[in-house]
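BUG: 3D viewer hangs when loading the predicted structure for this chain

Environment: internal workstation, default settings.
Expected: structure renders.
Actual: progress bar stalls at 90%.

Input used:
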Amino acid sequence: MAIAYLVYGLTGFGSSIVAIPLLTQLVPLRTATPVMLVLDLVAGMLVGMRNLQFVQTQELKRLGPWLCIGLLLGVSVLVCVPEKPLELILGVCLLTYSLWKVTSRGEFREIGGRWAVPLGFFGGCLTAVFGTGGPVYTIYLAGRLRDPDQRRATISTLTTATAVARLGLFAVSGLYKNPAVLPLASFLLPCGAVGLFAGARLRSAISASRVLTLLWIVLIVAAVNLIIRSLPALFG
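Structure tokens produced before the viewer hung:
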């Protein structure tokens, strides 16, 4: 958890995509996702509230409607669909994205505003089910915003907004009736706070791209493990 929020402190996103594949080795997905929601909500408020002047509201307005539709569909899937197929989907998505990030050069490539429709919808689905929609939002915002401060602040604000929306949806759907969620979130909160503080301090001292390259390699291993673990339950 500390490493997950170290990445968040460096980049403004990525906590769930680091933590969820590893947490699901230890606890069910329906426990891991609500736990990460609590921590992401706290982190998003801490980071986003201090950089409001950099937030690009126009891009949030483009993403917002499609993101909400994706969230509604994703919560329905999380509540109704068995966990092993969801773990397989998470592993495939994570593997695809990590391989793309390892091989990409990372230079700015502008994309059109119409990409808000598919990326907002798909990001909302992933956020609701796995808490890992941040990379999808980042694909869009990285192609719209050149300024790194604007990008980081906008992503953090979007993370906070989606966390608030998911909190309501998860509460209505009964996911917070799970007695393991809040004690585990309370236990992990100090670990996340240490990582977030360290990431914020290190952001100006080291290259976030170097940290992320190693991170994607680790996540490739985690994704392969998720895929291998879920296949016997599906086809066995």
